[in-house]
Amino acid sequence: TTFNMLRANDLIWSFVINNYLMGKDPFPFDLLYWNADSTRMPRAMHSFYLRKMYQENLLSKPGGITLAGTPIDVTKVKTPSFFLSTQEDHIAPWKTTYATTQLFIGPRKFVLAGSGHIAGVVNPPDAKKYTYFTNAKLPASPDAWLEGAKQEPGSWWPVWQKWAARHAGAKVPARKPGDGKLKALEPAPGTYVLVEATG
User: Fewer Cβ atoms within 10 Å of its own Cβ: the N or the C terminal residue of the chain?
Assistant: First the structure.
């Protein structure tokens, strides 16, 4: 609900008017169902996350955050990194998230998708919706990146799939749950996904 307050006219009041005042049934929309799935984090963890990662931005500072006694320094990350942001994301504006490309030292790719942080991410290719931008260069300025970027129609998913295939190594047979050191608890997707948070 905190995130919904950022766009109250679209995400709260339209439903009050249509559903409560006018008595209309809500239009079934899978993305809104996903949006209503609250963050399942313990209170202390959620507070730590918001304070340290957002307000203080300590993850961007070498040693700014220590987890389990280990200082974290993302400027030493050599693992290939794929960064995705969306043009209309009001929670993590893309010009802010772009700065992360300047921290990591491994191979990096930044893609800017159309729409917001839900519809821009959940955008399968067969929907033929939105556009995305790519640029092989990663200048320090997000505006310079966009100026040199190429806009493509459709979903960013195929770009990510090609990138992941290039960095993932050889394919291996799918493992069978329960064959390794850990025993299988229950069939996918698991009962926990059906549990509703209370209080």
Answer: C
